[in-house]
Design brief:
With about 350 residues, the protein is mainly beta. Helices cover about 5% and strands about 50% of the residues. It is built from 2 helices and 32 strands. The strands form 2 sheets. The chain has a 23-stranded parallel beta sheet that branches. Strands 8-11-14-17-19-21-24-27-30 form a 9-stranded parallel beta sheet, with no helix packed on it.
Length: about 350
Amino acid sequence: MKRKNLERAVLLGIVLSVGMYGSALAEELSLEEFKSKANSENIVTVEQDTIVNGDPNELTFEDPDKNHIKDIIVKVDSGKVSFNNVNMTNSNILGIGNIIVNNNAPNKTVSGLEATTNKNSIIKGKNVQIISSGSGADAYGGLLTIDIDGELNINSDGIGIHAQEDGENPNAASNVNVNADRLIINSINRGIYLTNADVKQNIIVELKNGAQIISTGYEAGIQNSNSLNGELRIATEKGNIAISGGYAGAWVTYGSITNISSDSNNISSSRYGILNNTNSDKNGYAQITVTAKTGDNNITGVNTGIRNDGGSVFLKSQENGNKVSSNGNAIYTSGKAIVDLKAAVDNVLNAGGDDYGTAST
C-alpha cells in the first residue's frame, strides 16, 4: 500500500509540474543549434517546449551582428520557446505558442524586443513574457508590432514599452503597436514612454481585458513627450486600466496626445496623479483624455491630483463619476490650462489644499 501511495504521489507531482510549467521535458539548445534547424526558407518551426541559450557576453543594444535571430523566422506551432541572452533586435516570431524573452544578464543593459532604423519586427503568438535589463519592448527608428491572443507581461529594469528618438536617423519614426488580451508592466523606469523626436511617433495599445502598468522608481507610469501630436493610446474593450508611478501616474508634455479608455481607470502617484506641464505653445499644448465607459475615473496624487500648467486634461465618465484625490490640491492649474470633468453621476474632489480647478457634469 505504501509503495502504491508513493507511486501515486510521484505521478501527481509530475502532472502538477506539467500543468504549471508546460512540458516536463523541454529541448534545450544553443543558439547555433537552434538556427541550424532552419529550412530552405529560413524558418525554424517549434513544435515542443524549447529553450534557446545565447551568449550573455554578446548582448548589445545596437543592431547586432552576432548572437541574434534576425536572419530567420521562428514559427511556434505549439508549446513555448524561451530565448535566454539572445539579441532579439528586428526578430520575427509567428505562430500560436508562448514566447519568453529573458535578457537580464549581469552588467548588461539591453532590450527584450527591439526594432531599429526603418526595420519591422513582428511578434505573434499566445502569451509573451519579457524580462530585460533595459527596455522591455523598444522601437529605435523602426516599427515593433506585438499581436498576440493572450497576455503581454513585461518585467523591466528600464522602460516597459519605449518609442524613442533615433538620434542617428532623425527622420526615421519609432512606433510600437500592441494588440493583446491583457497587459502587465512592472518597470523600474517609466512603464510606457513615447519620447520627443523630429517626426511624429506613436504607441498604440489595444486590449481586450485590461492593463496594469507600474513604475516602481521615481518616474511616470506613462509619459508622452512627442511634440508633433504623437499619440499614446491605451484602450481595452472590457476590464480596467490601473497606472501608477513615483513622480506621476500619467505625464504629458508639449504637443502630445494621450488617450486612455476602459471600464474604470485608476491613475495614481506619490506626487502627481496626472501632470500636464506644457509651459508654452511653441510646439502646441498637450492633451490627455481619460474615459471610463461603465465605472469611475479615480485620479490620486499625494502632492496634487491633477496639475496642469498648460494644455488640456479631460476626464469623462460615461455612466458613473470622476474622483480626484490629494493631500494637497485636488486640481491645480496655471497658464492656459483646461481641466474638464464630465460625469453621468458626479464629480468628487477630495483635497487638503484649496485650489480645485473646474468640474462640470
